[in-house]
Amino acid sequence: MALKNKKILCISVMENWGGGEEFLLKLFNNVTGYDYIVASPIGEPFQKFSSAGIKVTKINSLKKIYRKNNKWSLLDKIITLINIKISTFQLIAVILKNKVDFIFCNGNFAGLFGLPAALITFKKLLIVQHLIYPEKSFEGKTLRQLNRFSHKMICISESVSENVKRILGYNYKNNIVTIYHGINIPAHNEINAELTEPDNKRINIGIIGNILRLKGIDLVVDALKEIIINNPNVHLQIYGSTRHDEEDSVKYEEELKSLINSYGISGNVHFQGFENSKQAIYSNLDIVVNYSTIAESFSFAVLEAIAYKKIVIASNIGGPAEIISNGINGFLLPPLHKEKLKDKIEYCIKNINSKEFDLIRENGRKTVEAKFSMAKFVKSYEELFDSI
To answer: CB–CB of 384/154 below 8 Å?
Structure first.
């Protein structure tokens, strides 16, 4: 008799598309042989999951609350508690109706919503850890409580795993597993093999990600100001959306455009918005800069860029430092150092067609194949799901 597919309730709390939602879609499309039921509020993720043929249940009270001025207000906490109470009854109904085997929460906020339903229905709770938190933050306190009841904490990088263990301290239990993101490695014919001639052709430098202050986009603009003035063939392409439900994201976009105009380089800086096609993004770029001001848990942009054989410059903290080996498959710099960033960009422009950079491109591709392939990602999740 054939075994039935395990039924997994996946909880998502986001109304906008981001790295966490892209992770879920990769999971659904590649880790097959399981029946996924997604609980999500109405929004872009809901639409994309539905379009991909995933069974999605609308629960609008599954809603992340964004902090203002990096602080939680009493009202924020009350609204969150009310939403958790409302969602619990709906999640229990989904669990019972679909005979769910276990619950998979996409992030700590999703874990807060999934915890009461998991306890009431006696279902095991798995929580994906996407972020790095300050140890004394509200999120850190939340993590300690969720850890008491979770079956597994799945960390997307060793940087995240180390952060979780630091926060848990003596409460740490042996339920943490690290599974790196994986990507479908582009075929060689998908990669733009034509290299830039710096003396007479455009050089495109790219930033990929949402318009957020922690991405350090202003630092890249500062570093590029003189470079662009001295070489009008250099262009900055910014791929990513402004989060209109986050006040500071909207404000930051306005500040960036004002800064660019004040430098007189607006003709060389292009806000491309969200682009779904990875090939369209990376075929248009020569150099990718991921210069975050704080430690990122991971970076799809860094991983994808080296898979497409692009030269990458990244901050030497967090997840990107687990992908890039300095001078081997890309370049790492200390964050918040505009002059060092400027010097490295100039070095990359000068050497864009060198044999040294040919080797860096090949090494980047090999790194993805060895450590971050979709096959490895799939195998790790199959082993995890089958163990439950």
So the answer is: yes
